[in-house]
Design goal:
By secondary structure, the protein is α+β, with helices and mostly antiparallel strands. It is 29% helix and 11% strand. It has a 5-stranded antiparallel beta sheet with strand order 4-3-2-1-5, with no helix packed on it. Strands 7-6-8 form a 3-stranded antiparallel beta sheet, covered by helices on one side. Strands 10-9-11 form a 3-stranded mixed beta sheet, covered by helices on one side. The longest helix has 20 residues. It binds a DNA duplex through helix 16. This is C2H2-type domain-containing protein. InterPro entries: CR1/CR2-DNA-binding_regulator, DUF4772, Znf_C2H2_type. It is found in: Nucleus.
DNA sequence: GGTGCCGGGTT
DNA sequence: AACCCGGCACC
């Protein structure tokens, strides 16, 4: 539901609606620097015999065209028209040479080409270019209406989900050809919309970097998760195209001694699921998202802010290395998971934890960050370092950066978490679960009653307002620590 | 019974 | 997160 509601704003549709979109506004072209109303296109007429737009533009072998060669316009004959690259192989009759020209640089009428390489507009007297730009204003009102409808349909489909794009990425090459070869009409492939056709006008509307996408997907043919990249492109309409190119997102498997890198979430999840977690139906059914814990998202070319686990090359900035086991609730479920009622409430943490403990990387050496439930109960997050210390994994809570610190003499409760860890990992075959958790007496060492005077004794019950907050709340005294 | 404080509920 | 309180263990 979120994507639907948000996508409206951030999707290309939203961007197109919010900006001047030649596609949508094209038929209503305000004129401006372009032709005044009524005088459209070149003198040959908008739909004249030589009018060539991108969709209708197929240059046949033998067709006479004009290109710029050595600063002069030369006539040539089309030998081949490569729609994918949008290049035309031309044989220049006057010079007897073969040249390769972009479709944009080919004219079909013998006029002097403009001095500028690619001016944004076409003057009425200019030669008819086989341009990649749309000539929407020159269309008939009927086709305009039709195009508006179709464009709306296409944009609607575009705005649905990035997955739509990714699912149709197999059409990337052909879609590119379609886009390159014709924007005036909509092909049945549909989703390759108008919005790529405004490139010539430098519109702020987002145009997907098709070539990059192609090369990217070709570079990683085994990846089916182009969704992230596409999502980035689709959602980041303000960012220049460079940015998409400069920050490459990849995903690294954090399973010990693996470190496999994939460029898609789907791919890395599949890798983790199949190679590390196994494919049991139980996994599929109940712990489908467990793979999330074993990969890290990597933005390359960005300064490193977090140190990944040792053994993993450090290039990541956002690390989703999350342990969702009991450390998130160290003082309750972590210690007293066998307490009455502990197994009853089926929150997600408890649902995941047994499986995690079963399938978690059985790395010898393990830093476990323990957070106290209340800030006044423990001085700070404490890492319990469980021997042996050839640590290779660092499990933290999602929101906190690792703060390596040796195990300080902390309160008994916190230590018991480490003891629990030791107990669990000394018997690795035993899965941790609420039903099989050890007897409470093993784990719950009630806090030793402090010998120091507490607020109640110092100030008395009548001066309760002078107590520390913890004492007022019947918590462990914060002021007079033992 | 008084005290300390854990665990959990409420706001 | 702050606040509150039932209840348990210890003295």
């Amino acid at each position: 539901m979120l994507p639907k509601t948000r996508l409206g704003k951030r999707s290309p549709l939203g961007a197109l609606m919010g900006t001047s979109c030649p596609t949508m506004e094209g038929p209503l072209e305000t004129g401006g620097h372009r032709d005044p109303p009524g005088i459209v296109g070149n003198p040959m007429g908008p739909l004249g015999p030589q009018h060539l737009n991108r969709f209708g533009n197929k240059l046949h072998p033998g067709q006479k065209v004009y290109v710029l060669c050595g600063g002069r316009e030369s006539m040539g004959v089309v030998e081949q028209h490569n729609h994918v690259d949008n290049e035309v192989s031309i044989r220049l009759q006057a010079l007897g040479q073969h040249v390769l020209r972009k479709l944009e640089d080919v004219w079909t009428s013998p006029t002097t080409p403009p001095p500028a390489a690619h001016p944004p507009t076409q003057d009425p007297g200019r030669p008819q270019r086989v341009s990649s730009c749309i000539d929407v204003p020159r269309r008939s009102p009927e086709s305009v209406d039709m195009d508006e409808m179709m464009a709306a349909l296409v944009l609607t489909s575009l705005s649905c989900s990035p997955q739509v794009q990714s699912s149709s990425k197999t059409d990337a090459v052909s879609g590119c050809a379609v886009m390159e070869s014709g924007c005036g009409e909509l092909s049945d492939s549909g989703s390759s919309g108008y919005w790529s056709c405004d490139r010539g006008y430098g519109s702020p509307a987002p145009s997907p970097p098709i070539p990059e996408t192609d090369s990217h997907s070709l570079a990683t043919p085994s990846d089916e998760g182009l969704d992230m990249e596409l999502e980035q492109v689709l959602f980041d309409e303000q960012a220049p195209r460079k940015r998409w190119n400069s920050v490459k997102v990849s995903y690294r498997c954090l399973w010990p001694n693996c470190g496999k890198m994939l460029t898609s979430v789907v791919g890395i999840k599949r890798h983790i699921r199949t190679l590390h977690l196994g494919q049991s139906s139980e996994h599929e059914r109940c712990f489908r998202s467990e793979e999330d814990f074993y990969y890290t998202k990597i933005h390359q070319r960005e300064p490193q802010t977090l140190t990944p686990p040792p053994g993993v090359p450090a290039s990541s900035t956002t690390v989703s290395w999350i342990a969702c086991t009991s450390p998130t609730r160290p003082s309750s479920s972590g210690v007293e998971s066998g307490a009455p009622g502990a197994g009853a409430d089926g929150d997600s943490v408890k649902e995941v934890s047994p499986q995690l403990s079963k399938s978690a990387p059985s790395t010898p050496g393990f830093i476990w960050q323990v957070r106290s439930e209340h800030s006044y109960q423990a001085p700070a997050p404490v890492h319990l370092v469980a021997p042996p210390l050839s640590a290779s994994c660092c499990w933290t809570t999602p929101s906190s950066a690792p703060h390596p610190r040796h195990c300080a003499p902390v309160r008994v409760r916190s230590v018991s978490v480490g003891e629990q860890w030791l107990q669990q990992h000394s018997a690795p075959s035993r899965p941790q679960s609420a039903s099989t958790s050890p007897p409470r007496t093993l784990w719950t060492t009630r806090r030793v009653r402090g010998e120091a005077k507490k607020c109640r004794k110092v100030y008395g019950i009548e001066h309760r307002d002078q107590w520390c907050t913890a004492c007022r709340w019947k918590k462990a005294c914060q002021r007079f620590l033992d």
